[in-house]
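[retry 2/3] KHDC4/BBP-like KH-domain type I domain-containing protein: previous attempt timed out, resubmitting with same input.
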Amino acid sequence: MAYPTLLRSDWEDLLPMKVPLPLSMSSKVFGESLVQALTPRSPLPLPKCLVNNQVQRPANAKTAVKRSTCKILFPGFDLEQHEDFELVPRIIGRNGCNVRWIASSTCKVRVRGRGSGHLELENGQYKEADAPLQISLSCASSKELESTVEKVLKLMQVIESHFVRYCHSKGLRSGKLYTLVRPEPLKACRSFRN
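[retry 2/3] KHDC4/BBP-like KH-domain type I domain-containing protein: success.
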């Protein structure tokens, strides 16, 4: 059954209060909308996650996922002595190609620390972290971390060969450019008995 179409100008003056309704609608929809608009509304209940104005996690909410992490530090690189080498741009690659090759949807790669150019929020100000220059890797699984570390080490071998040639050309002593640092696994706590 077709209902006649009412224009807003046909019924706008009939409403006791201004109700925002569409510009045109069928008479059936108009009647239902009018009933809804004129029915007094009760205040909405607080969401279940808010109790005493505190956000509560639902019982079935996932807790923070433990991610596998490691760092690559650069003890052989001195910012002042090797400033012409431009280590960070070599790590990142042209238009970020090296970092994109290393990273995946579940693995984060970040170059951070002194000389990285990566600004972090600290005490309300953005500045470089007061830490040694490093590549931080964080992956969803240890298996993915291993494959990511392999990619980073391949890249570091190439960059280290360039670094050795750079040092020889400048007459500088070159040592090991990078070091892989893995976090130590947490040791199980022993319970103390009387």
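[retry 2/3] KHDC4/BBP-like KH-domain type I domain-containing protein: The helical segments are 8-11, 27-38, 87-92, 97-102, 142-170.
[retry 2/3] clearing retry counter.
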